[in-house]
Design brief:
By secondary structure, the protein is α/β, with parallel strands linked by helices. It has a domain of about 160 residues: Rossmann fold (3-Layer(aba) Sandwich). The strands form two sheets. The chain has a four-stranded parallel β-sheet, with helices on one face. It starts with a strand and ends in a 29-residue tail after the last strand.
Length: about 250
């Protein structure tokens, strides 16, 4: 019996490798769909990376957006919702990714889903299965594949990772991810994406959202000292933004 497997390919390395493993393991006997939720605030190089991944996998990647947000803009979501982040999730993820997926599923049957949970994220995978759905194939976890393994596999395939990685970001999520609270992260945004930092600072101030954490207190971005540092960037728990996010 042929199953339909939807692989949710973000513009991160892990989901790209998850798609490759899924095709190699299940592609001969199942229908594999590669699906992406575009978000306007991602770095511009993400679209190039997605095209390279599609060519590597020799399969098209379908773009899925929420019908109420044709621009796929997180900033529009925050403005309409009058909020940017919550302790257990962000409205941009809920609407542009989770709700967009649910709407798509109303007219597209899927037996199994694949996400880019690496072996370090087994807890997140288990939580997702408990709170969201049980029909998830943990292909990276089953194979014991780490985030570094994903980087090595993508580079070995001749694909240049998204520019976000070379700029020092821990993933290829939106620039200025509103779930981040680390002063290390936000001052990196201030340094390499000053226009993004200013936009987040202005919108968060207008909406009354203190995005950063400094000396144990939540502060507005325009109150964050440029020299403020927290944990090193590599130690921050900031996985690829899929349909499941929590505060970092």
């Amino acid at each position: 019996m042929t199953n339909t497997i939807a692989v949710w390919v973000s513009c991160g390395l892990a989901s790209a490798v998850a798609a490759k493993l899924t095709i190699d393991r299940y592609g001969d006997t199942n229908t594999i769909l590669l699906v992406n939720n575009p978000v306007l605030e991602e770095g511009p190089d993400n679209r190039r990376f997605l095209a390279d991944v599609s060519k590597w996998l020799d399969r098209p990647i379908k773009l899925i957006s929420h019908p109420l947000y044709p621009n796929c803009s997180a900033e529009e979501v925050w403005e309409r919702e009058k909020a940017m982040s919550f302790p257990r999730g962000a409205p941009c993820t809920r609407i542009l990714k989770k709700n967009a997926r649910q709407i798509w599923e109303e007219t597209n049957h899927v037996d199994w889903h694949v996400f880019g949970f690496t072996v370090e994220e087994e807890r997140r995978h288990k939580m997702f299965v408990l709170t969201e759905r049980a029909n998830v194939l943990p292909v990276l976890i089953d194979a014991g594949i780490t985030k570094q393994d994903c980087m090595d596999i993508v580079v070995s395939a001749g694909i240049t990772p998204p520019q976000a990685y070379t700029l020092g970001y821990p993933n290829a999520n939106c620039r200025g991810c509103v779930k981040a609270t680390s002063p290390t992260y936000w001052n990196l945004v201030r340094e390499v994406d000053p226009d993004v930092f200013l936009s987040r600072a202005n919108q968060s101030r207008r909406l009354g959202v203190r995005l950063a954490r400094y000396k144990g207190q939540r502060v507005f971005l325009d109150e964050l000292p440029p020299e403020a540092k927290g944990r090193p960037m590599k130690s921050l728990r900031m996985p690829d933004c899929g349909i499941f996010c929590e505060e970092k």
